[in-house]
Write the structure tokens for this entry.
Amino acid sequence: METTRVACVSCGNKILPDTAARNNGLCGVCERKRAKLAAKAAMDNDILIIRYADEFSTLREMTRDVVRSAFLDLERLCAGECLYGLCIYAYKTVGGPPVFCGSTLAGFAKRESKLRADTELHKMLPNMPVQKIVFTSGKWSPYEWEYEAHRWSDFRAIVDYVENIAPKQDDNSPNELHAMALAAYVASLYDLDQENLFARHRQLSSLVLFCSDCESSDREWYQHASAKFLNPPEFFNIFYNESVVFDAAEEEHNRELLGDECQRRFNTYLQLVGRKSDGG
Ligand SMILES: [Zn+2]
């Protein structure tokens, strides 16, 4: 016995009445498309929700206080030397310790001559100009800086705090807590800059502030997004041009990351920065 087929209300293809009844008149293909778009819309709305505003504010303050004292200590150690870069770097795992790194112009000069003489490294990166190697592996690689993980044990309380944040019941994202923490570190550097803590280095050596996320797929966008947020455009441009590895595959990779959920959640939290707190 022949069943009379009906037209899909979206694409017009003939389908079984059962299918139409099950899918509100849609064929299987159109129904899957609709479900996918609905899921994306739900995700887009969810990204705008801030579940950890209190935790963000606490983490921002804690990090600010620890970094302030680490910076003052570092400045004493540098004894008049100019810092050109300061960085907070975190790890992908929530609860991974953020650490604080700094580098002086004199420190970079030392690394530069070493890197220029490092023929083994040049062989490993045959397509990269030596100048680029010097910038990416020396000048803008906080993991190589002379003040790496400065006073790291002071950050233990921050680690403990982040590790003990209880996930909210409606948080189904593996990224929101992490994105919140990444944004809080940026906010803390922003606050210290507003205090004019870095003024001397800003003036004398175009000090660039940024954050990094060690060894994770968030590293590239996080470095650039934080540097863009924290620095005057002309300082950001120096950092961007010198720290980017111009490689087509990498550029493609970066473009993919631009749509990343973690980055979009990070941007949502960053909107809290600069807003004056209530009750003042
Ligand atoms: Zn259809």
